[in-house]
Write a sequence for this structure.
């Protein structure tokens, strides 16, 4: 028999705290689809995606109904297209992107990730073709997400790729200028990209992964915030002593455990029903623009006036670590990013802080050194020079490379917009005020190109 | 030895279980299963016992006499134990159905009628009053749903019945509650 507390707590998590499974992502390897013939390749890809993905949405809905916990997004990740489509040029890459978009729409998923290239140490022909095709490919498709890994702790930073991406991000924004530069919301530049991320826009299926796999992304910033609210309201811990940050970290950890258990259970069952192996559960505090589903609000609960106030990096470090600890205990299959996201436009509280000038790009960069993922969903002026964007990417990649962690950049140089203007992307992507980028000129540094070598892996002080 | 079900109902106080246990022991009964609860000061317990008594009535008489002698205010009902249980030959899944809203007469009747119509067995029912404010009631039904039941239809009918009575209804597999709140060793 269940206790009153167990029932009421679960009901509250669902009804008032936005507990859900944020995404079930079906990973599909495309290595067995390769061909030198573009038509044959795209036909193979569409046939394989149809074979495995046709039941994905229906099964996710059934399992969500069974447990009373909604699976909000159903998605697909595929092998990096720059690798499987290596024989083709930029035009061929655009054709592949369109075929993937059609397959995503047919399967009823909201995003398909994997229009990706891994170039941390250099470019292969397919990588160059894919990166060149990005403006057209992302402008002509609706549901395709792209990620470019330009750095790793083992290989260093490919500064030629960083420079190239600075320019391509601007071109993608211009190609989707009629929609506020939304193409950039589907394009991420990574350091140390994980092979099994279920979250977009960074999801792709790594080369070491199975042929097909189910990965699950669980969120729950609202659940964590409400648990912290209750703890602060109580004022004392279980021993009757005054509540301190140590107790708060414990609350976050236990809540993360609960949320991860939900994700693992639902993911395993979806995988079993589809006859596909279960991969990982990625517990990331991924906010949505809805009030009460915000990572930024957690900073206020923990005593800061808002995210950006002094102490924010310390709070985020504690939050991120406690989330990982709870998740690791809940499941032996924790993977992906697993931490706290701070996407500006997707989080009403973070967006408000940035709009009010309380959260600068510099502070956001500092925050990314202690959390996953990075500079995420930040609108910057449309006339930002490509070399400045490349410089910002280089800084962020350096944080990831040196600290052996994933970092990423998803900037939106909003066409025609200046600092203070608002850009709206709609839905889960939210809205954001354009914020300023750091002053100074990086062009000569970026033009040097080449590679920043991998860091030393000893003498760690 | 015969198998009987003995139910006890009455005022709760320290020593009630000790008295019942003593009387059962004196009557030569071996307790095989037991469940007990307290609600609003009332004690209720069901014991399944193996007893030497020839029939249920003689065992009830013996138990009542023992309780009267011990001055414990409990009513006793004794019946021959049931052979076989509901659902023994059915594959069922455990679900937790909650319904909450303003309290008024007839809510449990309304919800349970839907379960009865679908052949769903209620294994535990709890009413929690006042949790969501004054006059707010939360009913928690732990039910066993046979595989042949159309879960979607059951869910829709429960929601519809709930709406009629201003109740919010949720239907969830029991496993999710265990997964979230309990740490099992395997």
């Amino acid at each position: 028999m269940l206790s009153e507390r167990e029932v009421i707590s679960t009901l509250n998590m669902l009804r008032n705290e936005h507990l859900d499974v944020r995404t079930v992502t079906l990973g599909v390897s495309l290595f067995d689809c390769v061909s030198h013939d573009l038509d044959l390749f795209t036909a193979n890809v569409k046939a394989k995606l149809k074979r495995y993905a046709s039941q994905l949405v229906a099964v996710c809905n059934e399992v969500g109904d069974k447990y009373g916990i909604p699976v909000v997004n159903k998605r697909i990740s595929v092998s990096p297209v720059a690798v499987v489509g290596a024989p083709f040029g930029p035009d061929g890459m655009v054709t592949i992107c369109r075929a993937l978009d059609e397959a995503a729409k047919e399967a009823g998923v909201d995003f398909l990730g994997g229009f990706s290239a891994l170039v941390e140490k250099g470019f292969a022909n397919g990588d160059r073709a894919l990166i060149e095709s990005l403006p057209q490919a992302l402008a002509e498709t609706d549901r395709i997400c792209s990620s470019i890994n330009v750095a790793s702790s083992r290989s260093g930073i490919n500064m030629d790729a960083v420079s190239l991406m600075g320019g391509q991000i601007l071109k993608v924004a211009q190609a989707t200028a009629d929609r506020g530069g939304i193409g950039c919301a589907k394009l991420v530049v990574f350091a140390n990209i994980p092979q099994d991320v279920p979250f977009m826009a960074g999801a792709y299926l790594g080369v070491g992964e199975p042929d097909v796999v189910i990965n699950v992304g669980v969120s729950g910033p609202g659940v964590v915030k409400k648990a912290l609210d209750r703890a602060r309201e109580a004022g004392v811990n279980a021993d009757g002593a005054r509540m301190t940050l140590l107790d708060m970290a414990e609350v976050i950890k236990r809540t993360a455990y609960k949320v991860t258990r939900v994700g693992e259970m639902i993911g395993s069952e979806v995988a079993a029903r589809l006859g596909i192996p279960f991969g990982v559960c990625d517990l990331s505090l991924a906010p949505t623009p809805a009030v009460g589903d915000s990572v930024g609000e957690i900073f206020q609960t923990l005593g800061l006036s808002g995210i950006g106030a002094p102490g924010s990096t310390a709070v985020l470090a504690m939050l991120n670590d406690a989330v990982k600890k709870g998740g690791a205990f809940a499941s032996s299959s924790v993977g992906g990013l697993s931490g706290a996201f701070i996407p500006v436009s997707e989080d009403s509280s973070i967006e408000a802080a940035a709009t009010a000038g309380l959260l600068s790009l510099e502070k956001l960069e500092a925050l990314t050194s202690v959390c996953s993922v990075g500079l995420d969903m930040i609108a910057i002026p449309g006339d930002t020079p490509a070399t400045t964007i490349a410089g910002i990417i280089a800084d962020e990649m350096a944080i990831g490379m040196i600290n052996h962690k994933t970092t990423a950049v998803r900037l939106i140089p909003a066409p025609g917009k200046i600092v203070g203007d608002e850009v709206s992307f709609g839905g889960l992507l939210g809205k954001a005020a354009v914020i300023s980028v750091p002053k100074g000129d990086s062009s000569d540094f970026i033009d040097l190109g080449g590679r920043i070598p991998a860091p030393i892996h000893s003498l760690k002080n | 030895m015969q198998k009987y079900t003995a139910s006890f109902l009455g005022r709760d106080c320290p020593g009630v279980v000790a008295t019942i246990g003593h009387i059962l022991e004196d009557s030569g009964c071996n307790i095989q299963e037991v469940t007990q609860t307290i609600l609003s000061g009332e004690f209720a317990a069901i014991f399944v016992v193996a007893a030497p008594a020839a029939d249920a009535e003689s065992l009830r008489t013996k138990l009542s006499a023992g309780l009267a002698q011990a001055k414990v205010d409990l009513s006793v009902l004794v019946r021959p134990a049931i052979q076989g249980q509901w659902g023994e030959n059915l594959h069922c899944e455990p679900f937790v159905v909650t319904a909450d809203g303003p309290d008024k007469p007839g809510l449990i009747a309304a919800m349970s009628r839907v379960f009865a119509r679908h052949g769903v067995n209620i294994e535990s029912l709890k009413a929690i009053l006042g949790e969501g404010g004054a006059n707010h009631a939360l009913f928690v039904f732990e039910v066993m749903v046979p595989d042949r039941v159309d879960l979607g239809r059951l869910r829709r009918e429960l929601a519809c019945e709930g709406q009629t009575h201003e109740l919010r209804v949720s239907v969830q597999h029991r496993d999710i509650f265990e997964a979230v709140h309990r740490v099992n060793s395997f």
Notes: The longest strand of chain B covers residues 92-102. The helical segments of chain B are 16-26, 56-69, 107-118, 151-164, 174-181. Chain B touches chain A at residues 96, 98, 100, 124, 126, 128, 131, 138, 140, 142, 151-152, 155, 168, 170-177, 179-181 (CB under 8 Å). The beta strands of chain B are 2-11, 30-39, 42-51, 74-80, 92-102, 121-129, 136-146, 168-173.
